[in-house]
Amino acid sequence: MTASTTETPTKIVLLTGFEPFNGAAINPSLEAARALDGWSGPGFTVVARQLPCVFGTALDVLRESIAGVKPDIVIAVGQAGGRSEISLERVAINVDDASIRDNAGNQPVDTPVVADGPAAYFSTLPVKAIVKALRLRGFPSGVSQTAGTFVCNHVFYGLLHHAVGQPLKAGFIHVPFLPEQAADRPERPPSMALRDIVDALRIAVEVAVVTETDTQEAGGATH
């Protein structure tokens, strides 16, 4: 009589990146997500999707992607030009307050992402465990307390609102400019090579897949 074996189901990780915005020709979040589409490791497979940089429509596309892919984990990725590290976002706030127009010409000001929604949601990714793993591998990384009030935060908040009551681990990661983007700007902001962003996201995915309880250690900020 042959003993039966039970295989652990493969987890699906949905990785999203944004189209270029504000006149740019490239967005590192999308390039990195595309590079990881179809990548798999022990017990998981990554599926990447593009989101429009448009208030409202981005959330529609995200929800459609979740319905189609049926992921266990969703990691939304966005560009944070001017930052020098991989930023694990801790909190999404219920406000759209755009300093520039999105790709459809929208510029909401002091508008809730979700009417009557709570003021904020916390990421359900193991943000500190991911930061720790990234730093151990030599990647500049930190916990961020703000995802801004543009389309990135809009998607982050909408994602966590959608995930309420579901067994869905979800959160947001901001990445720096690419070197070619920084070279076009007179202030020469910090940047990170695409291969390093891709490798950092690989680590983030691997940690998110296996970590159920986040690391408890100092990761806050004084200002």
What does this structure look like?
The protein is of the alpha/beta class and 223 residues long. The protein has a single domain, classed as Peptidase C15, pyroglutamyl peptidase I-like (Aminopeptidase, 3-Layer(aba) Sandwich). 30% of the residues lie in helices and 21% in strands. The protein has 6 helices and 9 strands. The protein has helices at residues 28-36, 57-69, 127-136, 151-163, 179-183, 194-210; strands at 11-18, 40-41, 44-51, 73-79, 86-89, 91-93, 120-122, 141-144, 169-175. The chain has a 7-stranded mixed beta sheet, with helices on both faces. The protein has a two-stranded antiparallel ribbon with strand order 6-7. Strand 2 (40-41) and strand 3 form a beta hairpin. Helix 1 (28-36) packs across helix 6 (194-210), helix 2 (57-69) crosses helix 4 (151-163) and helix 3 crosses helix 6 (194-210). The longest helix has 17 residues, at 194-210. The mean pLDDT is 95.
Question: Could you outline the blueprint of secondary structure elements for this entry?
Answer:
Elements: E1 11-18, H1 28-36, E2 40-41, E3 44-51, H2 57-69, E4 73-79, E5 86-89, E6 91-93, E7 120-122, H3 127-136, E8 141-144, H4 151-163, E9 169-175, H5 179-183, H6 194-210
Parallel strand pairs: 1-3, 1-4, 4-9, 5-8
Antiparallel strand pairs: 2-3, 5-9, 6-7
